[in-house]
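Review session, final week

We close the course with one last complete record, chosen because it touches almost every idea we covered. It is Bacterial extracellular solute-binding protein, a protein from Streptomonospora litoralis with 437 residues. Go through it on your own first, then we will talk.
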Amino acid sequence: MPEHMWRGRAALAVTAVGALAAATACSPGSTQSGGSGDLAGVELLVAAKWTGVEEENFTEVLAGFEEETGATVTYESTGEDTGAYLGPKIEAGEPPDVAILPQPGLVQEYAAQDALVPLSGDAATALQENYTDYWRQLGSVDGEAYGVLLKAAHKSIIWYRPDAFDQAGVTPPGTWSDLTGTTATTLSEAGITPFAMCGASGWTLTDWFENVYLSQAGPQKYDQLVAHEIPWTDDSVVQTLETLAEVWGEEEWMAGGTQGAVQTDFPTCVSEVYGQEQAAMVYEADFVAASAEEAGATVGETAQAFPFPAVGEDSDAPVVVGGDIAVAMSEAEGVQRLMAYLASPEAQTTWAGLGGYLSANSQVEAGAYPDEFTRTLAQTILEAGDDVRYDLSDQVPSQFGATEGKGMWAALQDFLRDPSDPEAAAEKLEQAAAAAE
């Protein structure tokens, strides 16, 4: 993809978005009552992890449903640990009407507890009409549709400082071999540390793994690994770890060396590139933009990005997506209507216009996004078609894929500390995966 497609002023600048949302949103925690309509008098509770600008923008989206139906929708933040919030409420028989889950693995877990209500009527129709097979299957359990991918995150991006690249005389790489053999090497020889690493936040390391694995092993193997149909000791896993070691094993390529790489969290690693200028590149998703702006960078100008490069001559560049899935947790009047609205291009077009948002809804037009950078990210998700994949660590049991100090997080942090034995690291991953099941 041409580099200019990854430039342009991003809509992820939190200051402007926050001002817009604050001008139009209602009081924190709820949207304005819709008044008249066929759901007048109906009160619904929606829970998600979002706070700040994300919460303000989402409540503005909910306000459109209120205006359309007359229902009153109250928003409640779950905090970062959605499971800790929902668990007691499910046990008490008082879940929110709609919850936004940050991991597909939670859809599986709650469906197994009979805590979810399948999509039906207009909600099921909206899912069928607006999403491809892959996204429909992602929110389904045993063929029953429960979830709608409401908000996506593009996780196949490497961010960089153009001034550092210009100083070293390098350009954004198109392949992994270009990244390691030319870009990183040349930067290092010019006295510029190539990477800031976010190793203290274990989820960033799983994202590294997923991008390399998807490109190197392919979508079919990726799905098999998610389902644990192949062991984590499979040659494809070992090969991915060997590939990662080409970067993780080069201590001088990482800000602060190996110790710094393991001890730096997200978003501190972003400030090491933008603001502190200790490194030239940082890998993470589109949401890096907000942290880069906080560090004083201008997205599209002093902070730019290129696609995560293809690994291998015959491989495609990976497109890994994270995001949040809306599910119904009650059979109250209006719940399926709200789910249909959340799955609609109308609701998601509204959010796209507010910024800081990407949609996997096939019916959301590129023009809904207010800048070229975000439009390009959204298009790459849609154009990847059947080869796009959701974040692997969020699809496996949370004890393995999304728990601090355990499973993938711990095994990959250990491997970052010492990437000399990929086979041993693969064995640790397999043991953790088996224990989580």
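Two points worth writing down before the exam:
The chain has two domains: 3-154+325-384, 158-318+396-436.
The first helix runs from residue 14 to 24.
Good luck, everyone.
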